[in-house]
Amino acid sequence: MRTAILASGRGSNLQALITTCQSGNLPIEIVAVGSDLPGAGALMMAEEAGIPARVFPISNYQHRQAQEEDILIWMQNNEVELLLLAGYMRVLSPYCMSQIHFPVLNIHPSLLPAFPGLHAQRQALEYGVKVSGCTVHFVDEGLDSGPIILQEAVPVLSEDTEESLSQRILAVEHRLYSDAVRLLALGKVERTGRRVHILQQEELG
Q1: Is 101 in the active site?
Q2: Does the pTM of the predicted model rise above 0.90?
């Protein structure tokens, strides 16, 4: 699957996906990387991997829809079949989502629907939960509200800080995102409404 990735930050999930692709364990082709931030580490990672990268700074556009229209054209020109959000800090608008006719996936550092949005690890610690984790989900028009593909729990330790919990969750994210993308690319993800079923070999027919 021809895949584009949008990222805003340092790009650790992007790097994990690139590494898994390079090892031959992920049946996708990352054809383009985009970011809304000119200095994002993800752009440098893409460059080092020889993947074309593009910046869409919101300050360059008169309004949000103009930026999203540019992103849509960029994906169309790259014949994208799958979009992955990897630390992309902007919510795609209902207009943008209505124009995308292929899967869009995101990974979030909590066990959704708990603690959507920013600073999920801080939210988990402040709430006092004993278990957190991460979730790979389809993106819809809401905030971290799309149907869940995979989740994995990470214990919250009594001595955890936001940073230490974030690091332990991130290590799981790197593996879980690739697992979910692999299942999707192999046709093993079946979605009916909000329910996502992972097909077993005997169900693939």
Answers
A1: no
A2: yes
